[in-house]
User: Fold these one by one.
Assistant:
Number 1:
Amino acid sequence: MIDEKQLVQLVQNNQSIPVQFADQRLLLDAEGVLYWPQCDLLIFSDLHFEKGSFLTQFAHPVPRYDSIDTLKRIQASIARYKPSTVVCLGDSLHDVNAVKRMEDRLINHLNELISSVDEWCWVLGNHDPDIPESLFGLRMNFFTKNNLLLVHEFENLENHKDVNGQIIGHFHPKVSARIAMQKITGKCFLQDHKTIVMPAFGKYTGGLDLKNEAFSTILDKKNTKNFLMYNKKIYLV
Amino acid sequence: MATKKRALLPKIFSEWFSTKGWKLRPYQRQMMQAFVNHQSSLLIAPTGAGKTLSGFLPSLIDLYNHPRSTKKLHTLYISPLKALTYDIERNLYQPIHDMQLNIDIASRTGDTTAYQRQKQRQKPPHILLTTPESLMLMLSYTDAENIFASLKCVIVDEVHSFANTKRGDFTALALARLQSINPNFLRVGLSATVAYPELIASWLGPSGEPCEVIAAKTRVKPRIKILKSKTRMPFGGYMAKYAIKEVYQAICEAGTSLVFVNTRAQSELIFQALWEINDKGHAIAIYHGSLSKEQRNKTENMMAEGKLKAVVATSALELGIDWGDVDLVIQMGAPKGVSRLLQRIGRSNHRLNEPSQALLVPANRFEALECLSAIQAIKKGDLDGDPPMAGSLDILPQFILNCLCSKPASLDQIYAQTLDAAPYGGLDKPTFEKLWAYTYDGGYALQAYERYQRLEQIEADLFRPANKRVIARHRQNIGTIVEAGRLRVKRLKRAHQGKIIGEVEEHFAQQLVSGDTFFFAGEVLQFVGIRDMVVEAKPGKAKEPKIPSYAGGQMPLSTYLADAVRQLLNHPEDWQRLPAQVREWLGLQKAFSQIPKVNKVLIEQFPYRKSQFVLFYTFEGRKANQTLGMLITKRMEKSGLHPISFSVTDYGLSICSVKPIQQHHIGHLFNPDILGDELEDWMLEAAMLKRSFRRVAVVSGLIEQQYHSQKKSMRQVTFSTDLIYDTLREYDPDHILLKVTRQDAERELLDLKRTADMLIRFDKAFDFVSLSKPSPLAIPIVLDVRSERITGAGMQALLEHANLYQEAENMMEDIRATLSKAY
């Protein structure tokens, strides 16, 4: 668990923003992770490990350093919040063969990180319906705690008992803001009364613009807040 | 002598010449002689001198003298524009038809259907007209050796437009490859008048050996005037719409006019404005590269038939297409370069011995200075042009793969062929080896697997593409020009049905909302929506639409002209040749601020549009100003001055920041030591380098632009290449693509040497003026909206200011409570 002084520092530096959501206090971090102090739980979404090597199979000679970089940033975020539980919100692997292509030293590194926390939960997503045994940690289709549902794709909350809000991934949201005649674009968190959409954390992940129709089907547009991440800081715009 | 003449020009040809009322010109005879002597040649002639015919004449005669029974390729014609190949095909058809020659011509471009291509491969025409990209594609076929074995001559049209461009490098490589297949063909270059003909001659010649230069006599110097308008000339802007009535008047008085503009948006605006006052109902047309092929062909045909009074055109028309008799060329907006201006003026009056008539219409007062400087240069016979640059490296992986698609080869074989292309004569082997390694498997330092290779080794020293997918992907992505993403425009007649009338840039289309109106293809269209990668729009009723802001055709001023403008400013005795309004504007500048001196840099500081601006008048050209902008803003960032963005023109650099720059900052900012050790790092971080990387990534095949004929959205490409760039810098800093990016930036964007010279020359030599608002001279520069964003504290300061978050404190209390409970 992060100590109070460091947390205050983060908030004062615009590196983290506290929000109230479904009776819970959460912190949206400028690195694209969400920290839930009451449960001492840290959420990552859409890691897309081995997307680089996936592309190289199709003769794209892109450099395959994305997994190294994603891991490095996961490690840094864990070091920042020191959570007891980590939840990965689906699409952690880019495809079903991702782990087969992953270098051994990276698999070992990831397993060390998994072992360093009390509990590591892989919520499964559309890209990774199954996660190979070689990776440690628990597998589940969704995660619930204190009336919150943590799941990859948007769900109808009526299907879940005692849940009054959900945190989802899948969409890779990004937003453009216009400030003093300048346009700023970046990945973002979206929040309305019942849903938080997390930004994608993986290195080679693109973004879906907030204007896309897909968002109007899951969010109450008028009451949606956009938290824009820009250059290692986060702002409500 | 007489017999020799007859030997050169067969009777049937000389008869054809006389029926046309033409005489063989001396340079045409020289070209024929060179062909007979088996010498490559470069013809330098002003536009309208019958250049194209001169290029083809030797081939036509050779085909007539030595008829070929079987169909085999004899002459290959390479043109920089697709449109030009159609035009040439039409023009060549005439003599062939008149003389009943048994010669086959065909053209092959990106528009040629698969069926026609197949036919051409089986039965090649005698003369094939093509573009560099299509030629490269043909060279990638396994039967390339067969197709080109019989080749006798390659004609490269408008060679001057290839100099110092990636497209030129690409073409030089294609010629080198042809040379390796068939070492005996002749090269014939056709070029407009240029500053350094010998440079083009060595570009064209095999292995950098210059070919023979044949120059047509320059004709009488053109008559050029600056329009002295009675209407108020604007301070800023690039449209020159203010003078529309006088321009219309000039069109009415001349027989046929060509109205040249600098951007596509400008062509739309001017075209619309001319029609609004066209009470005489003259036939005025529009021509630019965004219009569909059918639209352009229609205009070309009408012009050739003499049915048009005037055409409003962008640089798409500058190159060779024959426009019949043009009496007057009107240049709206500054000409941007002496050679370019001459080229445009050359479109008028094809009778060689009469002077061309041209009218320059400066769009703003700065441009009036540019126009006068250009006129003075033409009078003195000065031409501008850049020295040759080393060939661009990002094309080489494409070239390597292209060669291997045709036939397996070794590294050394392809390296030798590369050296044969003039721009690559100085390429060192280690660099080539790295580019080869990149083509082979990406060439990454940390490569755990060898499974994903683009090449496959079949013998000790023999390589070929690893599989069919690699070949297909390569063929679909051949080309070097990375365009802004484009969407086609459909003019709707009823729901979702209508005709495609052209293309606009993706970012322009994306800023439109339903109901917005814009000028396109000469009419006001109302945006309906984007469907299946097509912009759908219906004819609109609005009078004042949003103007297409598509980027096409923005051009930099030649550095020569920028310097000429600085000289002009310092010679007030020459000012009387400027329009009165411009003189008055310079007078205002003198009173309000200062006129920039030759030996000092003028620096103005003023608030404008909620931000602070500082303007450096360097007159060193766009690239040097760009470099300076990058360096100074980086130092401002370090000193906490929060720069937000900068923009450059050919004259100066303007920086926008949150905090004002004071005189005491200048000594620290505008100082030769900004070129110090950190330079490399600074450069690599700049957003501009990422843009270069994006180009390099597409050209070198890292990211594809086209696959299965579906264009990937440019925006998607942008995003991923930026990420790849960062990743490479962090994990593989010595990777060859980073070096290539650096080189690309230096070619296209930066001029370190000139910037360094400037900083040393003007060290401590500046005049700093603090003003309450932009000076008269500053207005055209600050109105230029194309600016370079700086990622950093400046934007963060703005964001912090705009951050809506206020509840943080209250919320923090709750969280503190939660945390302390846990402890």
Number 2:
Amino acid sequence: MVNSNYIIEISNITKNFPDKVVLDDVSLKVRKGEFLTILGPSGCGKTTLLRLLAGFNSATSGEILIGGERMTGVPPHLRPVNTVFQRYALFPNYNVYDNIAFGLKLQRVDKKEIEQRVKRALKMVGMTDYEHRDVQSLSGGQQQRVAIARAIVNRPQVLLLDEPLAALDLKMRKDMQMELKEMHRTLGITFVYVTHDQEEALTLSDTIVVMNEGKIQQIGTPTDIYNEPCNAFVADFIGESNILNAVMVRDRLVKFMDKEFECVDEGFGENVEVDVVIRPEDVYIIRNAEAAMFTGKVKSCTFKGVHYEMFVETPDGYEIMIQDYNAFEVGSEVGMMIKPADIHVMRKERTENHVEGRLIDATHVEMLGESFECEAVEGIEPGAKVDVSFGFSSVELTDDPDDGKSWGTIRFILYKGDRYHLTVRTDEGDTIYVDTHDVWEDLDEVGIKIAPNNITINEIK
Amino acid sequence: MRQRISKILARRRVWSLPYVIFMAIFIVVPLLLIMFYAFQSKAGGFSLENFERFINQPEAANTFIYSIGIALITTIICLVLGYPAAYVLTKLKPSNARLVVMLFILPMWINVLVRTLATVALFDFLRLPLGEGALIFGMVYNFLPFMIYPIYNVLQKMDPSLIEAAEDLGATPRQVFTRVVFPLSMPGIVSGIMMVFMPTISTFAIAELLTMNNIKLFGTTIQENINNGMWHYGAALSLIMLIIIGITSLFTDATSDEGTGDATLL
């Protein structure tokens, strides 16, 4: 074994389902004894990744090593892992004892030892004396405890947990989180935990892997992920945040909301478009408006238990979310301040849309499965493959069935202070990004229109 | 008055009344009549002579035992053929599975007599002898769907994560089947057995047609007695059959409880 430090090594895993790419070239290493959480919205591929580790699905390409051994073609029953399922998956034909003993009996473990180990596992999950109960008579929380006991009793090298707490109520979930963490410490085995709940991930994990659309967005400790999100998706998904379009004027100076701010980031270049993330608790409201970096009017103020959550609108029309222990009256003018270290600058993943198309004639181009009108193109043969580019704000969205050209579904909405940045997946499978002031909802069906003068066409050589 | 009628109609229970009346006339009353005739001698008055005759005259009793034997064989063959079929069906893509289920239910749209006459014609054409073999073939052919469907139903509704959980805990595909899938499909097997075994005991048309009246099943005996005006004896035979079927259904109920309950591992 070369890398004895790593219990799981996932290299370049791609998984295609007939109509979509679920995992796109995912690579990940898990250290021995680590509590690693795969976090992402539903449909991001996190459960598929877990199922590949358990062996329930096989990857289209790529390789998985567990404990240094190649897992390609190894069926689930021969893998050194055990799984805790979201919906418990207890065998209704066996009682609690026999459910937990299931794996041990298959391994032909000595009867006395089975009894000891089952009892110990039951004790660990706080279910002593429940041996002879019918599993269907247990509550959800109890069933999940039995499911955990059934998995850990086999002493797997890795415990896989597929949203194990998702079906429990809030109070129970909080209790179980603490117990899981304690269990991880006591057992000393590797936990790979899948969840869509960012708070759960932040609480439990040593390492968080944030996934979206089949790709790993960021890997890091909970603090890293929270404080230094690497892109707008992570910033938005983990905790609350203000994400704004900005321009990096030069090192340590960034301009957003039409104002220049000092920051601590370097190496982006000069006059480069970037995104900035400011956590709502990092914006300070100060009474002395003279000393404020910028001012605004309080639009709303909601008590959230420990702090107040306020939305403040600047004179230029930007909306900022602020969390503060003090409440400020709605309608009042306030001054605000942000410390340089609290401004997180992120490279923009893209500054305009690029899709592949085909020139039909001088004034028409085929893309997104439809023919779009464009301004007269010279020097490119009709029928040639072209790269079509258009700005985020030059796309117009409509819900009028007679109006839109191509159609798509809104997959992700990012609020950027003064506009929404939408991710739209077209019915043909292309992804385009749209800046708009209109309010749409996730999974809305939208028609896409682009004015001819906003379309730029370049031949693909 | 009118108000009272509308009030009565508003109660939903009232709407089941037509069926309740129907059930009373065509199910409850005939059952009572069977009881009445069975315990009455030809001369009238209460008597057990019909039951004594059943025990003392070997002919009817033998037919009865033979019928149960045929029913048992039919049920076992149906189970052996039906279970794998149902299992494979659940592995098919849903659209394909629907097509196959449709195919094996399709013959059920045709009347049993027509189907059986067609079977006779088929045996003639293939120059196969009619008799016991043909009888069992005909029974299996007629009752197989009743075995496949309930088993398929149970297997199809089984939570796939149970199978994954078993694999995950180290069960080979074979162990997954013997320890999880099969025990959990017990309710389907039990209702399949009831749906095949019970009607096969009393079948007579299939037996008459496929054995050219050479083999008599218990249903035929009852039919002959009643056709020949021996209502009392016929009624007693029917009652005996009812009781036996009742006992089997109690027995299968008990095993199905056990199947879903806490049957122990190993």
Number 3:
Amino acid sequence: MASLLSHVLNGLSFGSLLFLVASGLTLTFGLMRALNLAHGAFFLLGGYVALDLLGRTDSYWLAMLGAVVVVGLLGVAFERFLVHRVLHRELAQVVLTIGAAFVIADQILAYWGGRPVMPPRPPGLGGSVTIGDLTFPWFRLSLIVIALVVFVSLWLLINRTRVGAMIRASVDDEEMARSVGIRVPVLFMAVFGAGSALAAFAGVWGGAFTGLEPGGEFSILLLALVVTVVGGLGSVTGAFVAGLGVGLVDEFGKSLFPSFALFTIYAPVALLLAIRPRGLLGRVER
Amino acid sequence: MLDLRDVDVYYGSSHVLHRTTLHVAEGETYALLGRNGMGKTTLVHTVMGFLRPRGGVITLAGERISGLASERIARRGVALVPQGRRVFPSLTVGETLEVSYRDGGREGWTLTEVCDRFPILGDRWGQTAGLLSGGQQQMLAIARALVTNSAVVLLDEPTEGLDPSRVTAVADVVAELARRGTTTLLVEQKVRFAVDLADRIGVLSRGEVVHSVAGGSMRKDPAPLYAELGFT
Amino acid sequence: MAALRGRWPTVVGVLAGVGLLTALPALVPSFYVTLSTRIIVIAMFALAFNVVFGMGGMHSLGHAAFFGLGGYTVGLGVTRWDWSFTVIVLVALALGAFVGLAYGILTQRTNGIYLLLLTLALGQAIWGLAFQQVEITRGDNGISGVTRELVPLVGTGALSYYHFVLLVALASTGSLWWFSLSPVGRAIVGTRESPTRMAALGFRVGLYRNIAFVVSGLFSALAGVLYTWHHRFVSPDALLWEMSAFILIVAIVGGANTFLGPALGAAVIISLEFWVSLHTQRWMTVLGLVYVLTILFLPEGIVGLGGRLRRRHASVDVPVIPEPTASRSGRSHE
């Protein structure tokens, strides 16, 4: 029983991490129909920059803040100068962002080396909680809490604020949104930057969970892609539900079918896409 | 106020507007007539910045707007009631109007005013726009353009698909815009509707403005217009 | 033969090219023979890929699966299951065709970004199998010691393998060329350009998409077969999605709108990889930049450069990388 609960919590905490990464992806796709495959590289970069800053400042929170800001700004610049030029051309975006990911990951390798590293856990979150037979690390629970907070905040932002209305209007009909004066290009930059910042945050906080190494950016990206797609491109709620789901499938898949684990994720996803391309909660293509 | 000079616009590889020239004076209501496929919507979309002219220039109050991004053109004072309504399906009526609202000063349109004019919008303030009926959406599309308090309003076949009572409501709005001194470009197929409201009338034929007459002269006998449009 | 009439300059050019390639090992230091073999194998893969991409207009990010399946057929057939040469090749081709058909069927209703993601997922599923069925495939370690004893070579060594690969490449290129000109091939191009019109004309668009995938899968698997025998080694790396992305950029760089463009792309990129790796460890950065710069400045590929310089200005801003027609919401304009 304790073992079952442990698996569930592990699955949920990993799923929470996936949601944190996928939320940025799904936001940028929903708004800009831009699939940013460099997202995983931002995740990685966030962790590495934080570690670098930690070495210099000895403050976890300063390092975290710095990493999030740096990568967020990089995301803004990335959108403004690169992604913007290939909007509405999906294949071009895919190739462009893959290329950027290669460059970022290789530069990380060149600058910081290829050893796997692990950002520290946030101070104060060491130790475990005991529920009956089960001991579970606080840190992993915190991931679930954070994912919930982020999810609720994003939902409120999109559905209950003026900015959210502007975003939804731009998603509905970009031309008409512009025609009422909504500064869509600025929105794009902001959303992209926010998504990248979220990825960086996940890289620092979640990196303590998964570890980081050059090459790792694509494994997390692929899983985040799975989450994004299953949940429906553009749906934050979908990403949340799918994230937790994929986390659980991954966890139980690994323990029940260890030699099939990767296949057990991708094959059903492929089937789902074939039958229902818009995923669980995505919108029907116009 | 709104000037198009020798504007050339292509849609894909087809040449839709040929050196089109059009002047709308400040405060004037100009009706642009033309059959389907003659380029009326293309012209309106080009003014709004959805399309870029390949040649010629469009100015607003003397300043160039052709080539600018749509949101900049909008902020300079142009609003559009597009063909086909094009409301934001996932926004509520209230959100649509709030997001579009720009302060128009004492004489400007307020949210309360548009709700008075279109009571249905006040009733359905919290309803998602996608669930409104066609006629209701059209009212919303018009209200959306009004609350931007723009100096120029473009209306592309605003009465299409509306029942007579709503057509009257639209006519009232156009008259009100004229009363408030808003420069209005009304694109239409319905000759009668246009003739009753317009100060000047033009006919767009194969991408060129062929005829441009004072509205008043057409009110008694619009036959020349029908002829120009190709109806005998 | 009708296709050749009046095209003698092209025929001469092709023969000259073939002659050059055959004589190549005699003209360059023996060190480059291995490199040339690699280029030819990747060029084969790129041409096969282009049947789906350039001809069919379908954006597939899962083609490494066919390539890798061909490769693993050799790896397992030689080291584990003691198959003959003929069996290995036939099984590889059959696998390529069969999985190609599966891809085609599963992607019937998808286009654009969803097609991309679906093929990615499919490719990943197959990679996952190879990676984790460690008992059969030895997982990440790969299968080494794949000897060339079975391959019908004249002589031994890199040189003879080069000629074997060249022969197979010429045969398959010729086949694909013939295919592209055949009614079926033309129908496939038609479905890319205007699927609704094709459907209205009575063509079963789905059928032609499937055919494209089958042919593409088959020839990609063949390239994979040659690849494993070239390296005498196969690992899940051949199935990585990065490989799918790689062949995609190779096709684009060369010019996906022409038949031989992808082959040119292979020559350019593999040579670049070789040269860059001599001087620096940062090949991945260079490759990434190639991706970015190609998309931004060279969407028609190298082959298209000549055309671009000739054209004064494009009459429309149409992206030349084949974009599926269904990916944008169309609005009627008067």
